[in-house]
Write a structure and sequence with these properties.
Elements lengths: L6 E4 L4 H7 L7 E2 L6 E2 L8 H5 E4 L3 E5 L6 E3 L2 E3 L8 E11 L2 E10 L5 E8 L2 E6 L5 E7 L2 E11 L9 E11 L3 H4 L9 E3 L6 E2 L4 E2 L8 E11 L3 E11 L13 E7 L7 E2 L3 E11 L2 E11 L6 E11 L2 E5 L6 H6 L10 E7 L2 H8 L6 E8 L2 E2 L12 E3 L6 E2 L11 E4 L5 E2 L11 E4 L7 E2 L12 E3 L6 E2 L12 E3 L6 E2 L12 E3 L6 E2 L21 E2 L11 E3 L6 E2 L12 E5 L5 E10 L4 E10 L13 E5 L6 E3 L1
Parallel strand pairs: 1-5, 4-14, 25-26, 26-27, 27-29, 28-30, 30-32, 31-33, 32-34, 34-36, 35-37, 37-39, 38-40, 40-41, 41-43, 42-44, 44-47
Antiparallel strand pairs: 2-3, 5-8, 6-7, 7-14, 8-13, 9-12, 9-14, 10-11, 10-13, 15-18, 16-17, 17-24, 18-23, 19-22, 19-24, 20-21, 20-23, 45-46, 47-48
Length: 634
């Protein structure tokens, strides 16, 4: 908070008149609290004491000479009540090098010929009211010297009910946000504030100013360049102004978002939260624009987002281990407790004790194992490290254990070329946006559910060494647009890409034999797929509710199971064999959940049996026999 200057009240009436009839005329001192001014001991509180609750700059008031405003409780009221063809003005003067926020509450009883209570800023009328209930006004005024005038006007009336009231004046100076929100340890950052609805500096945090304004947004941003891996962090909360509560359907009308390079998928919130929580984001070298934005939809509720403690840090802790099992000891030479570690680089060979020490670094954001000596990442290695967002893995690594990254915020991972197996549910439910593989990859197996529900993952190109992609490996990856399978595979397993609603491009293995249950279930954006000529079986619901508009099934296909292409409502054209095997078999199929992959047994039917049920746009089916010269249209 800026130093608060004294507010001065100047009256144009004579001293005798001021003393006799108006206790607002003299101000002699200011207290140390926010604009708490006192009159002489024999007089009532001053006008400033009555109505100004915050002023970040020096302000002076000039009261009306003929019809001065007077104190009425916590407000002041016009002095011309009962006087026809009269006016009563209260003038406030101030100067600021920054944009200012002026807020106040007012009301005006609109009885006979009571024109209105009006607000002028530098001679221009900005607001007026005839509302007998208090309403709140908020204005943003550019830097400079300003004259603020409140004017009450009465026409041909001597009614004693024509009162207007003003209270709770606040004048906030909107100084550069970095003065209030940037921590002392941060690298320098400069913020650009919103022009229409700027973020304002409050008590220990900054806050959006568009609260109560339907269909509005308030944002601030910063652009910076870094030459080494760094962490950008901040704390935020989203709540109702003054603790008010309106509705449980909070996200329907309010949203707080945070973007890095325009990326909205990685970090955003729209949940009601009364306590501050901290987000830490590792950033690789480059130029970034970070943007914080509060958006209010069709609502006038006073909804706010509050941000504090923004910092850009490069506080790496480098540890070169003399022997296995010494990581914790080495780190504690550099920090007080393991929880103090946010960025750690490790050299040397790790054992189970070292992995345990890493699990105890609960604020760890970035971990560089590029020069560590490890062959296996243990099961649950990073499970529970809720701030961990960046990990560099070493060449020489062979396996990644099950649930290894569960509960982390990992967003970018490169799988070293030496890795042969990615474990069960190892990256499930993470914020992974980018998955790459080292040159000359030796990867053969992606286990069940390995990338289940990675809802920000956009593209997967598998090395041609991969022979197995397990059940539900990419199920629920709702942002996945491109999926390139390895040509070394011969089976697409159950639920592999089920629920990948953004999927548009798929390359199926050249030697594919089998497409299993629900493998592309509910891929509503997938318009085309080339099914290889080697494919001889497509199981139940494989492409159920898919977006396909045309389909060519290989003539060698023998087994087409029930509902395999049902509910493909865009499907207009099909080419397929005139002969399919018919029958049933008992099989086991697999499916994923938020924490596991399960199996179930059932009887499956194949042949001409509801294969294209509810394909309501279907126009043409061309059937081909095993003999190329026999073709008919049905």
């Amino acid at each position: 908070m800026k130093k608060i200057a004294m507010i001065v009240l100047t009256a144009l009436a004579t001293a005798s008149a001021a003393t006799a009839s108006n206790p607002l005329m003299e101000v002699t001192k200011a207290s140390s609290s926010n604009v708490m001014l006192r009159a002489s001991e024999s007089e009532a509180d001053s006008i400033a004491d009555a109505i100004v609750t915050r002023a970040d700059v020096s302000v002076s008031f000039t009261n009306d000479e003929t019809n001065p405003w007077t104190i009425s409780g916590a407000a002041v009221k016009n002095g011309n009540c009962g006087k026809s063809y009269s006016s009563s003005t209260l003038t406030m003067n101030y100067s600021s090098s920054y944009k200012t926020e002026l807020t106040f509450d007012w009301r005006s009883f609109n009885y006979s010929s009571h024109t209105a209570l009006r607000l002028f800023v530098d001679g221009v009328q900005m607001k007026s009211t005839t509302n007998s209930s208090y309403s709140s006004i908020r204005l943003y005024i550019d830097p400079g010297q300003h004259v603020i005038v409140f004017k009450d006007s009465i026409g041909n009336s001597t009614s004693t009910s024509n009162y207007s009231y003003i209270k709770n004046i606040k004048l906030k100076e909107i100084s550069p946000l970095e003065n209030a929100v940037l921590t002392e340890n941060s690298e320098p950052l400069t913020f650009t504030n919103d022009g229409e609805w700027p973020w304002t500096i409050e008590d220990g945090y900054i806050q959006n100013s568009n609260y109560g304004t339907a269909n509005s947004s308030s944002k601030f941003s910063t652009t910076f360049t870094i030459d080494s891996l760094s962490i950008l962090s901040f704390s935020r909360r989203v709540a109702y102004l003054n603790g008010d509560s309106y509705s449980s359907s909070y996200s329907d009308y309010h949203q707080f978002t945070f973007r890095i390079r325009g990326d909205l998928n990685r970090y955003w919130w729209n949940s009601y939260q009364t306590s501050f929580s901290t987000l830490r984001i590792p950033l690789e070298p480059g130029t970034y624009t970070a943007e914080w934005q509060d958006t209010i939809f069709n609502s006038t509720y006073k909804l706010v987002s509050q941000v504090r403690n923004i910092q850009l840090l490069r506080n790496w802790i480098d540890v070169e281990m003399a022997s296995s099992g010494t990581l914790g000891v080495e780190v504690l030479y550099k920090v007080n407790v393991l929880n103090d570690v946010e960025m750690l680089k490790v050299k040397g060979k790790l054992n189970s004790s070292d992995w345990g020490d890493i699990k105890n670094m609960t604020n760890l954001v970035a971990l560089d194992l590029g020069e560590a000596i490890i062959e296996n990442i243990p099961d649950n290695a990073f499970n529970g490290l809720s701030s961990l967002s960046w990990v560099k893995l070493p060449e020489g690594l062979k396996t990644i254990g099950q649930y290894a990254f569960k509960g982390t915020q990992i967003f970018n991972i490169e799988i070293p070329s030496t890795v042969t197996n990615i474990g069960y549910m190892s990256f499930a439910n993470t914020r992974l946006t980018k998955l790459t593989f080292g040159k000359d990859s030796q990867l053969t197996t992606i286990s069940n559910g390995a990338f289940y529900n990675c809802t920000s993952l956009g593209e997967v190109i598998l090395p041609n060494t991969v022979t197995t992609v397990g059940y539900a490996a990419f199920q629920g990856c709702t942002s996945l647009k491109i999926m390139i399978f390895s040509d070394a595979m011969n089976t697409i397993w159950d639920y592999t890409c089920s629920g990948c609603t953004s999927l548009q491009t798929v390359h199926l293995p050249n030697n594919l034999k089998t497409i299993r249950y629900h493998s592309f279930y509910d891929t509503s954006s997938l318009l085309k797929v080339n099914i290889p000529s080697t494919t001889n079986r497509i199981y139940d619901y494989a492409f159920y509710n898919c977006g396909l508009d045309s389909l060519i099934l290989p003539i060698t296909l023998q087994y087409l199971h029930r509902y395999s292409f049902s509910n493909c409502k865009n499907l207009k054209y099909i080419e397929m064999s005139s002969y399919l095997e018919s029958g049933s078999s008992s099989v086991t199929y697999y499916y994923g959940s938020s924490d596991d992959v399960y199996s179930s047994s059932t009887t499956m039917y194949y042949g001409y049996n509801n294969n294209f049920n509810n394909c309501t746009a279907l126009e043409t089916v061309v059937s081909q026999s095993a003999t190329p010269d026999r073709k008919s249209t049905r």
